[in-house]
Write a structure and sequence with these properties.
Blueprint lengths: L3 H8 L12 E3 L5 E3 H11 L20 H19 L15 E3 L4 E3 L1 H4 L9 E3 H93 L17 H5 L2 H9 L17 E5 L4 E6 L4 E7 L6 E6 L10 H70 L3 H6 L1 H7 L17 H5 L2 H9 L17 E6 L3
Antiparallel strand pairs: 1-2, 3-4, 3-5, 6-7, 7-8, 9-10
Helix pairs in contact: 5-8
């Protein structure tokens, strides 16, 4: 018949690992398990069910069974104290000291038990000799556990280092992304400044030319030949605005080591007047591609005017023309800069999402390994404690200790695919952004083509 101590130990044993409960948790079905054992069981089964009654659990993190944990700690403490006083352990049947060990039944017996019918023809050994043999055997079984916990600690160290490296990786990669976009933004700022400077220089030059022409006209006498008609005095708006975003995008090619050329000659130009809306529109009749639209509040009569020479499609007043052109230049560059800002934000968001995902993956892996290391440490500690116990006490609990010495944990998985894919975020970044920018700068036929053809335009003429 089993002793009261054995029955109590059985009641305080986890149904999964058959060891005394460690951090016991309780399910709604009232069954309790070691926290680490239950989590490992659920991971293997890929479903949260009770290992005993198979009832599904709705709780991902069951509560600790504090009363059971306290009982287990008290039992282990009492057992340890009994082990220290092993010389007082007596046979429960004959009240004699346990001096022999039955190899068949695997229990210590007294000299009276040796001659009893129960142990007839059984092989017996002195307690000291049997304890020495089984302790040696147990130490051999303990070695794989120690190697296992060493492997877990090594992998956990790698996981800890990887988690830190992910943060460093993300920080460095985000800084590199920002630097690349700063270069692209600076390119746009420099290009915008250069184009506005060129526009203002042309405005100054042609305004001065028009001023000189007026002075000449005032001094002109009837004996003089007719003054030459003003030609090329207006600002070349097409040069400054024609396909501006495309030309900036094309020039940006110099920063990404790539070449793209698009050439198309303009053959005819359609001119359309909308008096009510105040618009004069120019388009390519071959494919209805819009070239340019002037907006103005017409207050005078309009007449069609044909000119076989060079003619710019632009407003008539140099100053207003320059202001309008400069405003258009700034608007176009604002669109390009906004594109870069949006693209930078999207890429940084993608990087941070990957950092969050992989950091969470490493956090879960580290937590799992902590539990497994804790379980192994407790297992080793309990076995080492038994090895230090008095011979009789050791032999009494040897069966259970031998079971606990069997390692059921699989080897720790090596860390794989946990780092941030830096190449995905930084590889050819400027080129990929430049390539994507093409979608915002669809090429249109250059306004400069208008200047090379004789066309009909509408001009305001005062009575």
């Amino acid at each position: 018949m089993a002793s009261g101590s054995s029955l109590l130990e059985e009641e305080l044993s986890c149904p999964v690992c058959t060891d005394i409960f460690r951090d016991p948790v309780v399910l709604r079905c009232s069954h309790s398990f070691c926290k680490a054992c239950l989590q490992q069981y659920w991971e293997q089964k890929e479903s949260r069910e009770c290992p005993v009654c198979r009832r599904r659990s709705s709780m991902e993190h069951p509560p600790l069974n504090l009363s059971l944990r306290n009982t287990c700690e008290a039992f282990l403490k009492e057992k340890s104290q009994r082990a220290k006083a092993g010389s007082d352990v007596l046979c429960s049947l004959h009240s004699e000291k346990l001096k022999l060990f039955c190899l068949e039944d695997q229990i210590p017996v007294c000299l009276v038990c040796q001659t009893s019918e129960k142990h007839e023809n059984h092989k017996l050994r002195p307690v000291q000799e049997a304890a020495h043999t089984y302790k040696k055997k147990l130490r051999t079984a303990l070695a794989p556990l120690q190697e296992k916990i060493k492997a877990f600690n090594e992998v956990k160290l790698i996981c800890d280092q990887t988690a830190e490296h992910i943060k460093s990786q993300a920080h460095h990669t985000e800084r590199q992304i920002k630097m690349e976009f700063e270069k692209l933004q600076q390119f746009l700022k420099d290009e915008e400044a250069a184009r506005i400077s060129a526009l203002r220089e042309e405005e100054e030059q042609k305004s001065q030319m028009m001023k000189s022409y007026k002075d000449v006209e005032k001094r002109a006498q009837c004996t003089l030949v007719d003054p030459e008609k003003v030609s090329g005095a207006l600002i070349d708006v097409a040069k400054h605005l024609g396909n501006q975003k495309y030309r900036v995008w094309e020039k940006m090619l110099g920063t990404v080591q790539y070449t793209l050329t698009v050439q198309r000659k303009l053959q005819r130009v359609r001119v359309q007047l909308d008096w009510d809306r105040g618009e004069v529109s120019f388009s390519d009749p071959s494919n209805n591609t819009p070239l340019y639209t002037f907006k103005h509040s017409f207050t005078e009569r309009l007449f069609p005017f044909f000119c076989p020479g060079s003619l710019q499609i632009c407003p008539l007043k140099v100053s207003s023309q320059a202001q309008h052109t400069e405003r258009q230049i700034k608007m176009e560059f604002e669109k390009l800069q906004q594109f870069l800002k949006d693209e930078e934000a999207a890429r940084i968001t993608a990087l941070r999402e990957e950092e969050e995902q992989k950091s969470q993956m490493m956090k879960e892996k580290i937590e799992k390994m902590k539990e497994e290391i804790s379980c192994l440490s407790e297992q080793i500690r309990a076995i080492e404690q038994e090895l230090g116990a008095e011979d009789v006490s050791f032999l009494q609990s040897y069966k259970d200790v031998e079971k606990r010495a069997q390692c059921t944990l699989a080897d720790p998985e090596k860390v794989s695919g946990a780092l941030i894919d830096v190449a995905k975020h930084l590889g050819n970044l400027k080129y990929r952004v430049w390539e994507k920018m093409l979608g915002t700068v669809q090429y249109n036929l250059s306004n400069e083509g208008v200047c090379k053809s004789g066309i009909a335009v509408w001009v305001v003429v005062k009575d």
